[in-house]
Specification:
Blueprint lengths: L25 H13 L2 H19 L12 H59 L1
Helix pairs in contact: 1-3
Length: 131
């Protein structure tokens, strides 16, 4: 009987800056937290409530209507929030893309190694059959 020698060592991606294992910076943690919060139903519903309260207070002038009807101040606030939130969310998406790319490279290396091992086993089986 022929003994098939396999090396069962895990394949580790050899990248200088391994995004899967390195510590995240405080900016990356903040971007991830903001993206998680801004993409939740809690944020969306609470923001709608905030907008409703803002408009109701100003339409009925309960507090001397600091932002009358076309709500120019509200538009400014919303624009500032969007201007700050969009780049932070993009940073978080870019980091996630880097993690996904590193995982795909790792999977590719594992699959290539498995393919080579299977080919090696098939060659040995053919040798055994022909003997």
């Amino acid at each position: 009987m022929v003994k098939v020698a396999t090396k069962n060592k895990p394949v580790k991606p050899k990248t200088a800056n391994n995004v899967l294992t390195r510590q995240r910076t405080s900016g990356e943690r903040a971007a991830d937290a903001l993206s998680k919060w801004a993409g939740s139903w809690t944020f969306i519903l609470s923001f709608l409530v905030f907008l409703g309260i803002w408009m109701t207070v100003n339409v009925y002038a309960w507090i001397d209507g600091w932002d009358p009807y076309p709500f120019i101040l509200l538009n400014l606030v919303l624009s500032c929030i969007a201007a700050l939130q969009a780049p932070v969310i993009l940073m978080s998406q870019n980091r996630q893309m880097q993690k996904d790319r590193a995982k795909m490279e790792y999977d590719y290396k594992v699959n290539r190694r498995a393919e080579r091992l299977v080919e090696e086993i098939l060659k040995k089986v053919k040798r055994i059959k022909s003997a």
